[in-house]
Amino acid sequence: MKKVTPFTIHPEGYTILGGIGLFGFVSALVAWWHTGFSSWFYFIVTTTLLLLLFFTVFFRNPRRRYRLSRHSVLAPADGRVVAIEEEFEKEYFKKPMLKISIFMPPWSPHMNKAPISGVVKYVKYHPGRYLVAWHPKSSEENERNTIVIEREDGVQVLVRQIAGFLARRVKCYLKVGDYVIQGKDIGFIKLGSRADIYLPLDAKVLVEYGDRVKAGVTEIAFVPVEKCKEQKSKVDLSESVSLS
């Protein structure tokens, strides 16, 4: 029987982990060459191992399974719910929407997952500041990336990736016209950051302030079908699939 590991390393972490390992190895080798097994040598080795451990935790990509649902909206990020409120969405919808904000601490996995299955209608990157992720103005002033996905029944959901004080890079893997499956990777935010999701006002919220959620697993809202279209779904939403 094939052994399945509980997680893999996200590709975004390959360069950083490789760089830390190489720099630590060379530094330790130089220290050993000049001073032998001195306190300086052990300091370098210990620091390198601690950094590798921290970034392995940060860049881990847990293997997860979920029974896809046509009506449920999944959490786009791992973290804690820090806001559930009605807000006027200025960039795309230009009308009041229901916003759920998820704070992603540095020790949580930082991949972002598609909350619904559908066609990507809008993608736009915004350079900006690096306020702390929980700051009220971070969604408007920080570096961020906005993604809108339209479900087959016409329901649209907006996900906004927001860089924080430590996070200095927001990655998005989608472009307009792509078809994305619920729970699959759509991007990555390096270090502490935040993800906002905007839903129709009639969405039924399934989480509360302070709840811990998992990307691609936790159901955070329920948005019923609003329009009936005689279209065959591009994914069987009744089967359990791997989201790793």
Write out key terms for the chains shown.
alpha+beta, 19% helix, 3-stranded antiparallel β-sheet, 3 helices, 244 residues, 8-stranded antiparallel β-sheet, Glucose Permease (Domain IIA)
Could you explain how this protein is built, in words?
It is a single chain. This protein has 244 residues and is an alpha+beta fold. The chain has two domains: 7-61; 66-224, Distorted Sandwich (Glucose Permease (Domain IIA)), CATH 2.70.70. Strand 9 and strand 10 (156-163) form a beta hairpin. The strands form five sheets. Strands 12-8-9-10-14-6-5-16 form an eight-stranded antiparallel beta sheet. The model is unreliable at 227-244 (pLDDT under 50). The chain has helices at 14-35, 39-58, 138-141, and strands at residues 7-9, 60-62, 65-67, 72-74, 79-89, 95-104, 111-113, 118-126, 144-150, 156-163, 170-172, 179-180, 185-189, 193-199, 204-205, 212-213, 219-222, 240-242.
